[in-house]
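anyone seen this seq b4? input:
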Amino acid sequence: MPASALTDALRDLWGPGLVFIALCGWLVRRALRAARNESILEEQRLRDALGPQLNPPSPSNSASASPSSSSSPSASPSPSTSTPTSPSTSPPPLRVPPQLFRADVRGALQEHLDLVARLQEERQSAAGANRIEVVWVRSNPTHVAWAEARPGNREVICVAQVDGGTVVARWQFG
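predicted toks r here
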């Protein structure tokens, strides 16, 4: 008797179970498609923001250029070789202030490094003996952001809007 009840229950659940599995598969497929579309949109936004000098040839352009394969290999190496050499020679080496000697300063402007070092000196003189360590510094022409490791294992992200070498606005997170 219990075996027949078990088979009856399985037979009754077979149809709804298949519908549930099909619905889950459809939802996963839609989520993957949405993620792929979002990735493509983000890549397009990044290309538009960085400008034409950093735009690599898109797959559609390379596919349309494939019939003339003799011209495409000669055209693609010259932009890729000129792009890495010009950024490596154009920015002068950064002079890292002693307050930031442990900080990761990739992507920071020299004037912003000096500004963050000055702000750290002011904060440490006001805070007394508490040592505040800067973990990293990043900047663009209008803003500088840095992470501070404060006493008590507290990490704070600081952002400052800079105009003409002076701080216009400041924010702290954490």
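Strands lie at 133-139, 143-150, 154-163, 166-173. Helices lie at 2-50, 59-65, 71-75, 77-89, 110-127. kinda curious what u guys think
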